[in-house]
Amino acid sequence: MKVRTLFLLLTVAAIAVFTALNWSAFMAPATLSLGVANVQAPLGLVMLGLVAFLAALFLVFVVYLQTSVLLEARRHARELQANRELADQAEASRFTELRGFLEAELKREAGLNAESRAIVLARLDQLDRDLRSAVEQSGNTLAAYIGELEDRLERGRAT
Known about the structure:
This protein is mainly alpha-helical. The protein has helices at about 5-20, 25, 45-110, 115-159; strands spanning about 30-35, 40. The termini are close together.
């Protein structure tokens, strides 16, 4: 259990014990002014009710805040994934286009022999592997950053 949660539970328990020990004082009637009229009511019970109301209001606010942060984080993650897929497709398309262009140029160049073509194609394959590796590393780095942000959000919500 986290320190803040423990502190909150201890505070609620202390208020409950204090209320139980002083119940007769809480229930003692008093004259309360409402501005336009005076009423007889137990002041302690009214104050206790106000504390409970404020605690419930705060709880609703915290739940709303956490829900909105969670929904926003999920929306960002979806957008990031869509952008990552779009970038991967664009890189693959460019590479395919480059490969087609180079192969057409190689065919056009009659002066190149088969050995030179094999060397160029091997180099092109190596560049393909390097590019795919770089894109994968970028994706992994991005995923790590997203994971770190999600962890920070989780820790922020938990505290």
